């Protein structure tokens, strides 16, 4: 991500001074401060922070309402609640708003810096994942096909889009579980799936059940090998697979994983196939100190 830029929102000049000192002493850029909602709304537009520390009690409003207003301006801003108030209901509401962190006053410097580091590292890890994952899964595909059929595949041009696409007839979907949830899809025609099955068994296949089992296992091997390489590169990812799901028939459409989904055509002696892989950031984890609630 870009350099971490902070806005401090707190009605206490003392708290603002303490937080500002901690951040600046550790090399972070405090681009603005605000003591109320009006100042916050003006300053967030002018200073464009990517982090906001947010007090829970503010004149005529509260930190949760202000967080919602910030998200209307920039949904990517990471909000860290720093407040003397902390209970189950507040944490529940903060979680629902996808607040990134929650610290109870008095502020502990190490706790605040640890939360910031985790958030920044998460962005870096995700960026690295996006930069490397598709080539790794393509290599896993080429290697898996080669070992199972003794053939070589080639790839078309990579592309990114989130549009739904028509299936060729058989799609195998595998969910990827971990620090960043994802999904891998391999799509092919029934004829291609049948030819692959015949080649693997060195005989004519015995019908749909056998074809489905082969496509499921092939997809599972490709996804598993790709995830294993990514986990070796960074164990923090902790990627695991959900069981494969097969869809087949006419008029199928493939819904991709979003704007971070990559796709490419695969050319083989069995026919043309398509590989789709996408990961997304998880907003489900609220980092908090003293998490006893």
Automatic annotation (TrEMBL):
The modification 4-aspartylphosphate is found at residue 55. Coiled coil: none annotated. It comes from the Bacteria. Residues 5-120 form the Response regulatory domain. Pfam families: CheX, Response_reg. GO terms for molecular function: DNA binding. Keywords: Chemotaxis, DNA-binding, Phosphoprotein. May play the central regulatory role in sporulation. It may be an element of the effector pathway responsible for the activation of sporulation genes in response to nutritional stress. Spo0A may act in concert with spo0H (a sigma factor) to control the expression of some genes that are critical to the sporulation process. This is Stage 0 sporulation protein A homolog. It comes from Acetoanaerobium pronyense.
């Amino acid at each position: 991500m870009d350099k971490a830029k902070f806005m401090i929102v707190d009605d206490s000049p003392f708290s603002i001074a303490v937080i500002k000192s901690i951040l600046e002493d550790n090399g972070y850029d405090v681009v603005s401060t605000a003591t109320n909602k009006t100042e916050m709304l003006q300053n967030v537009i002018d200073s464009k922070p990517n982090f906001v520390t947010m007090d829970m009690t503010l004149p005529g409003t509260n930190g949760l309402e202000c967080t919602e207003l910030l998200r209307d301006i920039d949904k990517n801003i990471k909000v860290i609640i720093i407040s003397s108030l902390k209970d189950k209901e507040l944490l529940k509401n903060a979680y629902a708003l996808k607040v990134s962190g929650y610290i109870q006053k008095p502020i502990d410097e190490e706790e605040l810096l640890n939360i910031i580091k985790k958030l920044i590292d998460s962005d870096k890890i995700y960026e690295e994942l996006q930069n490397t994952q598709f080539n790794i899964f393509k290599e896993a595909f080429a290697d898996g096909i080669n070992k199972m059929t003794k053939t070589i595949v080639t790839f078309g041009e990579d592309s990114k889009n989130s549009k739904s696409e028509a299936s060729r007839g058989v799609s195998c979907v595998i969910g990827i579980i971990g620090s960043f949830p994802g999904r891998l899809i391999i799509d092919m025609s029934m004829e291609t799936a049948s030819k692959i099955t015949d080649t693997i068994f060195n005989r004519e296949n015995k019908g749909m059940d056998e074809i489905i089992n082969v496509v499921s296992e092939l997809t599972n091997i490709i996804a598993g090998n790709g995830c294993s390489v990514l986990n070796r590169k960074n164990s923090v990812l902790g990627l695991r697979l959900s069981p494969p799901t097969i869809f087949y028939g006419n008029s199928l459409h493939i819904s991709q994983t979003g704007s971070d989904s990559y796709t490419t055509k695969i050319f083989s002696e069995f026919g043309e196939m398509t590989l789709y892989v996408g990961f997304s950031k998880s907003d489900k984890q609220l980092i908090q100190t003293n998490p006893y609630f």
